[in-house]
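Milestone 3.1: sequence recovery, worked example.
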């Protein structure tokens, strides 16, 4: 995907990220591509060494190609992260153990789509050190493209609750006209798999409610805010069968879901039993 990090490391914050990787975990960046490194110093040397038996030579070459591929995957994720760094990024403050864990996991990531997510996660942590919990790195390492798509679908049916603090809240319930299928179009198994992965908690029996603590609560969906009608009243709304875990809440801002037309008016209002006012 990316030949050299020098192509994107054009800002001070990007250079700080390279320094962090080098000083913090000993990861080396060169201006050579992995292919050139291999040709000049790795595979060619093995091939031309007459002292190595053919079978051992084949094994060494195979292992060399594996190492080069893993290094390339890491470089791709770093380059994608660099594109999302801000001028206020503080990569030097990112925990060494956190970044070592990420680098160990992304070496096995080959999917372009998943690399985009990992790159965004790295950038978010550099922009705000301590923002991304380490448990999310474990969750992402077990996520495949199908699970990523399903979580993106779930995020499209998620409102932002504005209370004492803001946090995302999915509005998900089982569609009575289609057994085992939610209003999102995700099946019971799809949602259960996201639960098993650790991004959500799923309670089909009792469901979840949310009680507001502020006297002027509101919700938002994409760029539109909605206010509850009675200021000073304590509201409690049902939110359905799903809540996000800490890992899910951390991943939510990274996902770019598609807005569902009329979701608030035709789904949320009838479900919570209150018509809110546009702000």
């Amino acid at each position: 995907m990316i030949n050299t990090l020098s192509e994107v490391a054009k800002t001070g914050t990007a250079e700080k990220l390279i320094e962090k990787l080098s000083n913090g975990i000993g990861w080396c960046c060169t201006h050579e591509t992995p292919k050139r490194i291999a040709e000049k110093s790795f595979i060619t040397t093995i091939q031309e060494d007459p002292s190595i038996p053919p079978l051992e030579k084949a094994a060494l070459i195979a292992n060399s190609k594996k190492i080069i591929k893993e290094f390339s995957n890491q470089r791709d994720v770093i380059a994608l992260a660099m594109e999302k760094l801000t001028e206020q990024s503080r990569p030097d403050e990112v925990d060494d153990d956190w970044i070592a864990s990420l680098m160990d996991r992304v070496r096995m990531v080959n999917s372009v789509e998943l690399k985009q997510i990992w790159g965004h996660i790295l950038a978010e942590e550099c922009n705000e050190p301590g923002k991304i919990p380490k448990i999310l790195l474990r969750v992402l390492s077990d996520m495949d493209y199908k699970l990523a798509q399903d979580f993106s679908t779930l995020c499209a049916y998620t409102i932002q609750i504005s209370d004492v603090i803001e946090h995302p809240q999915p509005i998900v319930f089982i569609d009575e006209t289609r057994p085992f299928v939610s209003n999102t179009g995700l099946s019971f198994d799809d949602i259960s798999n996201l639960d098993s992965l650790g991004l959500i908690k799923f309670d089909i029996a009792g469901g979840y409610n949310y009680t507001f603590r502020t006297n002027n609560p509101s919700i938002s969906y994409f760029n539109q805010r909605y206010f509850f009608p009675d200021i000073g009243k304590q509201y409690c709304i049902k939110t359905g069968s799903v809540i996000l875990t800490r890992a899910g809440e951390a991943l939510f801002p990274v996902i770019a879901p598609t807005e569902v037309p009329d979701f608030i008016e035709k789904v949320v209002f009838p479900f919570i039993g209150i018509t809110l006012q546009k702000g």
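Residues 54-82 form the longest helix (29 residues). The beta strands are 158-162, 166-170, 200-202, 208-211, 218-221, 224-227, 236-240, 242-244, 277-278.
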